[in-house]
């Protein structure tokens, strides 16, 4: 152990407040190579760094050393202090006695997994590959779909303690992408202690922070990300996250699946229609049951009322309570299923719900009819392609149930109107959230929502085109338009 | 500001929940399905209701009937609540059974008053119970588990396409004034032991039953009223008729036919009323029928177009006679249930309408019937 | 106060949206009961009255937009200020605002009555008022674009309700439309007047016009919208005439709801419950639009905050509604507003267009005499 390497070790110890975890290896009298154990590729280090440093005579400058090393990413830093950050992210640090300059060599080997089949957003057709936790791998995957010079990458380091690296991707079109400035400035200005997952960043980028409805979506599929880029949206990669952020989205974007475009257009429309029906079923079916059975018995046809009375005869609770009990049971099972170690949990919870449901019926807690309706409503929320939107829909159902049980149909109408007005007031980066419906747009409606055959070749939706500058201010104005009319 | 706003909204919402309204939880009400009105000798009502009720004992019948005596139809509601386990709910009434005596006692407008209540639907079916409503509703049937729903289904399928005329609450409450509207036709129902049967229909004149129509007559009335009607028909042709129409030549297997019976089904019918002479009150009622021949007692040569023409001619004359009989009957009992008055009103100026007394005018009118036949098919064989 | 007021660009909207705004201001709770009053006035030729009233409304709308086109980007408040001067203009504006407050009270009261009669006989009025007020405030505070959004939603609701109203035609007696003869002009005029009350609402174009981005198309879309309303009203009138007898129309308070009573599916009956409930959106959009107009007027004249004005107006409406609970009082209120509306919507624009014409030609002459060659504004 040379004297020089010992001094480097002491210096590092001082900087990192601890002498453990890193390795300092002296080569000859004037070289010292240090790295964090476990974060480097030992083979590369031996072959390309240690090998070429041994048996070298005295060297004048660190620049010479740089030429010997046959590794692409290799950089000279002004001082050891500045190189520590690199050291901690897996670089090997080569220091030369007699100069403060430090050479950092990328021999990083962060534990990662190989890209696997997408598990959350699985489709029948389309590529069966998903993003991993490694940003480099993810970028490589994305680039393999779009190898165009118009695909712009912008790297932003978030101002956090975790030094999280992010990359923004967008397509450079004929017009400048209107959202990029807003997103960039929001990412740079938002200050918070630490950021681990991309879902956390996503929440900070929303226009309407108090809203329950998501404005940006997460995806683990590179093809979804590529499709979004072609539609003029922005994709954000966060280091260490297998899910990329896609935005801005309109309300209806959350109900589209990439598979709609992979299927025949007729099938695609059918699936979308089915999903929008599921949306209404999941929100309105059980509240309507509660409202009809609590207040509006006139609405039930005679053929239906007899079995309904029969099924409810032995139940000691009013319809509202009965439904709430069952809904909460389903939610508990879903939550339990999500906490289970395997993906089997998901299926198990649904099966469990049915078993519990059967027992509840046998015990006289709920009626058979309601079990059926609740199962249908639960299915409805799970058909929403976006899990975040599905979760929102599930939450909305509870206030809906309560107003249905207290105010009946007018209550349901009231809450629906409130939600509609809320959605109308919402913006997604300054653009109306309910886009093709309001403001009504023929093109957006036909090509985007109805997905006709020709729309396969039209990628830009009107949501993302022709935007005027300054979206943050536009969003603010949107809220207080009355106050600042003049 | 934003948090304050959200909070205030939540506060108001919670305070609102405290103002709970009266609930109609389905198993805590007795749902009236059928309501019967009889008139007692002292001119009071006897109201019978058949309702669905939630019963914890599965063995008990889910359906009960209760009858009360009251002065007005509305008053019955109060009396009912004193006699049943749950609160009575009138929003699901499907059938109203009326005693013929109700019309004699001039109490029909009591029924019309019911439509003031928004709970009552407009499509409540009204039917006359020949032996009294209580007779039908209170009888314990062995094979019918729920008389209310049974009556509803029965009327449903009988009035939907078949011959029985439809009388709904909406139709029933239409004509109170002296204005020119068609009179009502109400199906008549009676209980025969364990069975209930729709026997015909009653013809009304100003809320008075003035005549009765059989099934076949009801069919003509119904189709002239512009409603869809089907009817399984059976006619007999005498030899004389066969000779007159020329049908006699088309029985290749039996040269010496006597009486022939023909069964066919009218699968579609459409009636029209034309005014031939407004001043002399001459009307022509046309019914276009499409028929499907189902059986003929002798082998008839359907391949020959002349044979079919002869058959159509004979059928037309027979059916026209039947129609004419119906029209004569209507005129005789002076119940303009087909709607000649409406046709008349639509042709005369408003000022003249004021002096019109249709009840006096109608018997002086001339009604002529005509049936046009389209032979759609002859079953699966020619 | 400036005469012309150009809103910021992101608040402006395409003229196409006028189509939704005008019909939604016209159609409200009145659509449930309008047939009855016309029928009481002129009998079975009510549909002729509806057509005539519709044509007159088109004419009035034309004259309103013609006046507006004389200005660069003015609303009624600005025009009053321009024509009648500072004080008289403000008085006229206040009259208009007062009329809108009365309208808001009437709309709320009528909707509450419908809910109380048809759905919940025991619901306290204040619950419905608060529900409506929350929705109205939330919408109107979102500004004109959110209000227009609700108008678009309302349009779909109206369209579906109209489609539902086809079902009574199964029981139609078409002879009831005949004979087509007008024997009493006075009755017909009375019917047209009553229909005018139902058609009122298109005058919101007075206030929306400055916000229209492509003003040259405003005329077209406004007329389309009015045409749509006229067709809806005509259709409902005809359906009611053939479905109900004279007695039923004379007595039934809400023929349009009675029409829906017979709509029936195998899984659902009595659609009127759903329609009445959903009508909350329709009611609310009209209320929000009127509140927005009141707020805008106050802002233009005294620079007050629209949200404050909205809260005050809603409180006023609350107090007024709590004190009206008898059916007779509601009828009196409706009659009172009916007269007001006829005057302000149908008679006043004609009057104003004459005054504007005279004032402008006078000014032009004065300008010409003064040798100032100003840009002419009188090119109609």
TrEMBL record, chain A:
The chain crosses the membrane at residues 277-297, 350-379, 400-424. One of its GO terms (biological process) is spore germination. Keywords: Membrane, Transmembrane, Transmembrane helix. Belongs to the GerABKA family. GO terms for cellular component: membrane. The lineage of its organism: Bacteria, Bacillati, Bacillota, Bacilli, Bacillales. It comes from the Bacteria. InterPro entries: Spore_Ger, UPF0353/GerABKA_families. This is GerA spore germination protein. It comes from Paenibacillus aquistagni.
From TrEMBL, chain B:
One of its GO terms (biological process) is spore germination. It is found in: Membrane. It is a lipid-anchor. Pfam families: Spore_GerAC, Spore_GerAC_N. InterPro entries: GerAC_N, Spore_GerAC-like, Spore_GerAC-like_C, Spore_GerAC_C_sf. Residues 199-379 form the Spore germination GerAC-like C-terminal domain. Residues 24-190 form the Spore germination protein N-terminal domain. GO terms for cellular component: membrane. Keywords: Germination, Lipoprotein, Membrane, Palmitate, Signal. The keyword Lipoprotein applies. It comes from the Bacteria. Residues 1-21 form the signal peptide. PANTHER family: SPORE GERMINATION PROTEIN B3. Belongs to the GerABKC lipoprotein family. This is Germination protein, Ger(X)C family. The lineage of its organism: Bacteria, Bacillati, Bacillota, Bacilli, Bacillales.
From TrEMBL, chain C:
Keywords: Germination, Membrane, Transmembrane, Transmembrane helix, Transport. Coiled coil: none annotated. Its main location: membrane. One of its GO terms (biological process) is spore germination. The chain crosses the membrane at residues 12-33, 45-68, 89-112, 118-139, 146-168, 188-212, 224-246, 273-295, 307-324, 336-359. Signal peptide: none annotated. It is a multi-pass membrane protein. One of its GO terms (cellular component) is membrane. Pfam families: Spore_permease. Belongs to the amino acid-polyamine-organocation (APC) superfamily. Spore germination protein (SGP) (TC 2.A.3.9) family. This is Spore germination protein (Amino acid permease).
